[in-house]
Specification:
Blueprint: H1 44-52, E1 61-62, E2 68-73, E3 76-77, E4 85-92, E5 99-108, H2 113-116, E6 128-133, E7 147-150, H3 152-156, H4 181-187, H5 191-217, H6 222-234, H7 240-249, H8 252-259, H9 263-274, H10 287-301, H11 328-339, H12 345-352, H13 360-369, H14 397-414, H15 436-446, H16 458-472, H17 484-487
Parallel strand pairs: 5-6, 6-7
Antiparallel strand pairs: 1-2, 2-4, 3-4, 4-5
Helix pairs in contact: 5-14, 5-16, 6-7, 6-11, 6-14, 8-9, 9-10, 9-11, 13-14, 15-16
């Protein structure tokens, strides 16, 4: 282990065995982090997504010399060798000095990566008009008219932004070889070696999440950090950012001061500030729905004037295609019942859950899946929908498992409440539901007719996602230059 490794790394001993880990010293180029001594919870791929997506890209950008930059188009995502984006259009400067730059964009973590990656002498990079990095500074050897743009300060000052919100798998994927070379490498490993490899990647993934948690809790209230992360998790896939923003608009302390131990008061405040609370009754709603909404309105109307400047726009939420059980208005009742109860959720997490107990993970998941029944939302899948024959949990088992794996475990580790004695329990984490990235990666690595017993645990499944992000999304040579096949010659030891 590195002598300066953070304390939480003790909770994830297999992480250092994963070849994609920046601390392993085996393949540091995976995460473009040659200069770091501990894992960074985001990659160059995250920065590419931020640049490409206006939902994440800072509205106000400037060059290294202070000129304003307007991104007319970020460019087309290049899935082959060469600059990250081609055919971009930027308006740089203001007034008579303003000029339009047309060409390519290259993304790096540090300005010095331009030289480290050999771009200065590569003719494919002659049309680069902007070198976009996290850290500020100007690279040497850039094309004459190219500008340097740093994203770090602007993103750090945007409290609604978190790299956890950026799903790197939602953006263009490079093409893969019909049979990737790594499939041959995995075919030479025993099933035990495959599971060990995947679980080391899974622990590394959890360690990255923990690093982000600790960086956040180092400079602000950990209760608020947990609150925001769980709100984002309740947003499921498409509403993570507005849920996080709502948690910042209505901080945990404010919510608890107003609601006390009354979830309906907390729900009224959250629903009102979300901008999703209907402003009139539909004629087809039943009496139960009308009674419920009148009760919420009665509470919100007393608050509306004071909160007028904080109410979110309904357009911030993605509602089309969202399953009724995942609708934000229903999820907000789960949030109210999680946080408007006696004792803080953080204390309940730490007091009721013993990481050294054999039932630790069941208790952890149960904390989210066994919320008290709500008189309205436990019996309705949607607002005004038909009453169900049986109560439906506000947070289902799959979502509860995801919250335990992606939020609770990293939070406990960041707070040093996941000791090394608990590491064997990580293998009994409840697996998340199957999804496209997991299926895609398993098909690439093990072939169409493989046995799911090659990734039987939640840790192994987390590992498949991490491998996809570190290797499949990073390689743009149709697998020809991917380092994973040669790294498989050094399988992780089973432990």
């Amino acid at each position: 282990m590195h002598p300066h490794a953070p304390l939480y790394s003790l909770a994830f001993p297999l992480a250092s065995q994963y070849p994609g880990a920046s601390t392993s010293g085996v393949f540091t180029a995976v995460r473009e982090s040659r200069h770091t001594t501990e894992p960074r919870p985001w990659s160059e791929r995250h920065l590419q997504c931020v640049w490409f997506d206006p939902a994440f890209r800072p509205a106000s950008l400037q060059t290294q010399t202070g000129e304003p930059v307007v991104v007319e188009t970020p460019g087309e995502w290049n899935l082959e060798a060469g600059p990250d984006f081609v055919n971009a259009s930027l308006l740089v400067g203001s007034g008579p000095a303003a000029r339009r730059l047309l060409g390519d964009v290259e993304i790096h973590v540090r300005p010095s990566d331009w030289q480290h990656h050999g771009h200065a002498g590569d003719p494919r990079y002659r049309r680069v008009i902007a070198h976009v990095t996290w850290w500020p500074g100007a690279a040497t050897g850039l094309p004459k008219s190219a500008v340097s743009i740093a994203l770090g300060d602007a993103l750090r000052h945007n409290r609604a932004f978190s790299f956890e919100l950026v799903d790197v798998t939602e953006y263009p994927w490079p093409a893969r070889a019909p049979r990737p070379p790594c499939a041959d490498g995995f075919s030479r490993l025993t099933p035990e070696e495959i599971v060990a490899f995947l679980e080391s990647a899974g622990e590394y993934r959890l360690q990255l999440k923990t690093a982000r948690f600790q960086a956040d809790t180092d400079h602000r209230d950990p209760h608020q950090t947990l609150y925001e992360e769980l709100f984002a998790a309740l947003g499921y896939k498409h509403n993570r950012m507005p849920f996080r923003r709502l948690a910042q608009q209505v901080p945990l302390q404010t919510l608890r001061q107003y609601a006390g131990h009354d979830p309906i008061r907390g729900y009224a405040l959250l629903a009102g500030v979300s901008g999703l609370l209907p402003n009139r009754l539909n004629t087809w709603w039943d009496d139960e729905t009308r009674t419920f909404l009148r009760r919420v309105w009665k509470l919100w109307w007393k608050l509306a004037d004071a909160w007028a400047g904080h109410v979110m726009n309904r357009s911030e939420w993605r509602l089309a295609g969202v399953r009724p059980l995942n609708h934000p208005l229903r999820r907000l009742m789960a949030a109210a019942r999680l946080f408007c109860s006696p004792g803080s959720l953080t204390d309940r997490l730490l007091e009721r859950v013993n990481p050294e107990s054999p039932t630790f993970l069941d208790n952890l998941t149960h904390l989210f899946s066994s919320l008290p029944e709500d008189p309205y939302w436990s019996w309705h899948q949607g607002l005004g929908g038909k009453r169900t024959a049986h109560p439906v949990a506000l947070i289902g088992p799959d979502r509860a498992a995801a919250m335990a794996i992606n939020v609770a475990i990293p939070f406990l580790a960041a707070c040093n409440h996941l000791p090394p004695a608990a590491r064997d329990l990580l293998r009994t984490l409840p697996p998340e539901a199957d999804h496209r990235i997991l299926r895609t990666t398993a098909h690439l690595l093990f072939g169409r007719d493989h046995s799911p017993q090659l990734y039987p645990t939640a840790l192994a499944r987390q590992g498949l996602v991490q491998i996809f992000q570190d290797f499949c999304l990073q390689d743009r040579t149709r697998c020809q230059s991917c380092p994973l096949p040669r790294l498989l010659a050094y399988p992780t030891a089973s432990s």
